[in-house]
Amino acid sequence: MPAQSPSPASAPPNSEELVEQAAEWLVKLSSDDCTAQDHQAFEQWQQQSPAHQHAVAGMQGMIEQLKQLHQNNQAQTHIVEDAIQEQSQLTQKLNSRSSLFIFMMGCMFAALLSWQMLPVEYWLADQSSRYDQWTDQTLLDQSQIKISGHSAYNIQFNAQQRHIELLDGNILVDIAKDATRPFVVKTEFAQIKALGTRFMVQHSDNQTILTMLESKVEVRSIQGNQRQIIEAGQQVVINKQGIQTIHAISPAMLEQAWQKHSLMVDQMPLPQVLDILKSYNQGKIYYHAHEIKQLRVTAILPLNDIDQAFTLLQDSLPIQVSRPVPYVTRVTLKD
Description:
Largest sheet: 12 strands, mixed
CATH architecture of the largest domain: Sandwich
Domain FecR N-terminal: 20-57
Oligomer: single chain
Shape: globular
Order of helices and strands: HHHHHHEEEEEEEEEEEEHEHEHEHEE
Number of domains: 3
Number of helices: 10
CATH topology of the largest domain: Jelly Rolls
GO molecular function: sigma factor antagonist activity
Distance between the termini: 18 Å
Protein name: FecR family protein
Helix content: 25-40%
Structural class: alpha+beta
Radius of gyration: 22 Å
Strand content: 25-35%
CATH class of the largest domain: Mainly Beta
Mean pLDDT: 82
InterPro entries: FecR, FecR_N, Ferrdict_sens_TM
Domain FecR protein: 135-218
Low-confidence stretches: 4-12, 66-77, 93-97
């Protein structure tokens, strides 16, 4: 049975969770074992909130228009079409009833991918890269930005300011000194201000991770307006709750890992690691953060071979990594 409605004391699900719940409901309703009680429960779930109805309507629209989605966005369309093709090949090997169920599931998750994976901001960004790309850019002031994985940012330079708006992904910034124009990297959760220094920023839907390689910066959280000086050899997470605990890191080893297209982490919570891996994965990664937040990761993970990275995590932690349909990875605790 798809996820039930939260209790009054629990936090409401975010948009991604609602879309996933809507997909699970529609898959359930299309299966052979769906009952009248399931249909009634689905109607009750829809009536709980306009957001539920919106998620269902959006998912149904995506299914109807799956082959016409994002014709101008070829990279995204290829992913959806590949998912449909793989599911179609699979259905030929199965009986008609199970074929319908599995094909429906593939369409659901392909629609989910097409809806959420590449937002319009990504296509309109001044600079963007794919999940498997590692590129460099020299800015007008001779600052250097190294980009890796699925990343996107906007550039706002004028006589008074040097601003980078990081929409998603991973950058390593080597800032050219300019005493009259501070260099600012802004994300959904933080504003990072420097004059001349080197640091890494990794940003996702849930967090911004700042890693200082040289000198220092001032960090201001968007929520709560907290301020903190972060110095070389320190790493900090900023999220919706503000600036979190500062951790000591080895700048030389971290940067060396970056140059080798690897992620080095020391006692990092698994949800934070998975948030970083999302940038380097072709598809979506799903997990329930509250179930795995106590698990800590100490490892060097290859970012150019995500399957191997997941294998290393699965071998060292009590988790199960599964791929129910193409381009969808689920991480759960082992039973």
